[in-house]
């Protein structure tokens, strides 16, 4: 019915579009408000959104690897062109669901993983109300709201089956692969020098950590895509080569956390296969708790304070690694400097936290000067370099516990459903989502990345895709049980 109406009135719509476009262009030229030049594009996107909303969603996925950070004001930044589009999709999605309520899958909403994510979001709202800086905390809540709506809930509707997952893969893989090749080509004349690494991936990646992490967490999906191809085909050969391309990109990003993440993913793969993921998580938590307890007991951490004159940045990767081990690397010790300050900041408001987004403006009041390095001016306005600690500082013990519950529940469900199905395609999808998730967990233990569009988007989409597979397995088993009766 809708398509017939659009066909009959297509001429009217066409002329309305032409007149609005001309008016916008003339006004932009006359008033020098050049942002009006985007009105025709906005109209096209708006029309497509309500005619075929799914295409805009996949268009966003294609743009994610190409997004750039833009500083609107000294205190307000955004990702272009993705963040305005994410907000637009959130609003359109609300309208779409209102018009098509049957599209809502309540099995997805009722899933414990989804419930814990929503509870954590609600807790962040409570923390924002009691924040020491309500304005910056409100910005966090708004950003988290459109990330959840677009990358968790819209994904749950638009990436339902293998065909959708394949489209998701190609939309991200093609532009991301091009950017890896461009980065390596730009890096070659610099002889892959360690000190020049951050110059090669701008403006599409803020730094080598964002770049390396994005490649690391997407490799599991490339391996998944290889399983879709027939043996000997060109597509399969290209995808296999792309794994080596991405590994080269990761290696020449010189990002230690990414190398560690790849190794942990291998361990996690076998832990899931051997039904040992719960034990692995428990051992990891005990190790972290034991180490922290040891360092805190009788201020043991003070014995490891760096020598200011010796704690420097290095020009060679080998020196960088050696300095990391000997505690003479500036970037590593700067993390420790922030972690100590963050810990004292957490103790100020241990239950409810200081409020989202409040770490950077306030942490220097809590730091220990013995751990200062040449990087402690923090011109890049970086946060605590550990998302778990950041959650503890800004959302208190409750926020961290909710985050841990979400992680544990997701990995427990991954193991459960991986072994609950005999369908190899389901197993491969579950494992790809799990390995991407684990890669993110390792990297956010040394950086704060979940609010980065390239990484946060894949984080939520991996969860949504996995939950959809869990639901499909349950449905298949229920149908099989009914038929057997």
Explain the overall architecture.
The chain has helices at residues 2-8, 10-31, 39-51, 53-63, 82-99, 106-110, 112-129, 134-158, 162-187, 208-228, 234-251, 256-273, 277-296, 317-325, 330-348, 359-362, 387-420, 424-444, 453-484, and strands spanning 68-73, 76-80. Strand 1 and strand 2 (76-80) form a beta hairpin. Helices cover 70% and strands 2% of the residues. The longest helix has 34 residues, at 387-420. Strands 1-2 form a two-stranded antiparallel ribbon. Helix 4 packs antiparallel against helix 5 (82-99). It has two domains: 2-99, no CATH class; 107-284 and 384-484, no CATH class.
Q: What share of the residues lie within helices?
A: over 70%
Q: Can you tell me the residue ranges where pLDDT is under 50 for at least 5 consecutive residues?
A: 1-8, 300-305, 307-315, 319-328
How many structurally independent domains? 2
By secondary-structure content and strand pairing, the structural class works out as mainly alpha
Number of distinct beta strands: 2
**What letter string, H or E per element, gives the SSE order?**
HHHHEEHHHHHHHHHHHHHHH
Per DSSP, what share of the residues sits in E-state strands of 2 or more residues? under 5%
Q: Which strand order spans the largest sheet, edge to edge or round the barrel?
A: 1-2
